UniProtKB/TrEMBL annotation:
PANTHER family: REVERSE TRANSCRIPTASE DOMAIN-CONTAINING PROTEIN, TRANSCRIPTASE, PUTATIVE-RELATED-RELATED. The lineage of its organism: Eukaryota, Metazoa, Ecdysozoa, Nematoda, Chromadorea. GO terms for biological process: cell adhesion involved in heart morphogenesis; larval heart development. GO terms for cellular component: extracellular matrix. This is Reverse transcriptase domain-containing protein. It comes from the Eukaryota.
Amino acid sequence: MDSNNELGQLLIDFCSQNEIHQHIKENTRESSILDLVFTKPKNLIENYNISAPFSTSDHNMISFILNVKFHRELKSKEYTRSFNHKNTENLRKYISSINWKYILETKFTTNDKYNNITQNLVSALNYAIPLQTLNLIIKNSYPKKIKILQARKLAIHQSLRKNPINNNLKLQYRFISKELKKNIESYNEEKISQTINKGGNAIHKLIRQKFKLNNKIPNLISEDNKIHINIKDKCKLLANTFSKYFQLKEFDKNFTPRQTTREHLEDIEFDILTVENILENLPNKNSNSPDDIPYILLKSCSKILSPTITEIFRIILDNRTIPEIWRQSYIIPIFKKGEINDPANYRPISVTCTLCRVFERIISTQIINFLNKTKFFSDEQFGFLQYRSTTTNLLSMLDD
């Protein structure tokens, strides 16, 4: 392959345009150069040598020294909160001691009132259930027998560091390590067995944990064929892509509501029992939220927090002003189909504040109940309505 060959010229042009250097100048098989080494930059390798073929190969062997330093990528620690029974009780006690009435009365704007509530909740969470590394939480959940074995292993390890040639200590360390591994495996198998016996969602949760997919966004290629590797660059590229699909609608400020003689919804009612019931039925998850208030906190302290949350919801609706943080959300890019490196093949999922979602649920439920009561929906309408899915549509059509 040379400049007289079309493919050869294409390769030469590519290397020239991209400043790629080809090092091998000697024959690697008989009188031909069939083995090539490309680098960018040129000094990436040094002292290359061509020697006799290896094993049964008829190609000469190429050896060289890599002129590069490899840096071990340190795995970032995962932090989470341990919502065990003891910690949750401490959280309830702390939140119960807060004067929520005073917190609401000392601030004047809706935004300040809401921020004051969430700041106190985050402080309570950090005090009662501080963030810990995931490994530490797992270790703390082990039974007493395993913890004793871990302590013994650590003690022997420390003694062995002081006296590394002690064969007796080496034997003890191997024995205790084997015993500890056996007990941890037995403990994990028992936990899996207990989870399977629970059935239902517990099994699905276990499967998701065991076969957790890599959620990292791969390298992305923009429209100008530029490869984006840095995480910040990928975020900017996805943000620009998603913004193309977002259209800011302008509403007519002089809009006049249509006059009708039909019954209309005067107000949305917020009562403590309704709010408490919704909080109690929230997912038992340490979910993310822009205001750092997870579902599990609201669920665990539903009885204590429901009066305060009801009050702030009432204030938000009466003042017709939502907290500023409710306008923020975490955007999660979800890959749909096609090329995984194309940002256009991702769809944004918006994760809003947990209390905002509770607020929306109460309003949407009351609006739908009102529309059902006034028979607003047609009997022929299916989809996006409770008990009126596309499946029930097919069944009703078959019955007819």
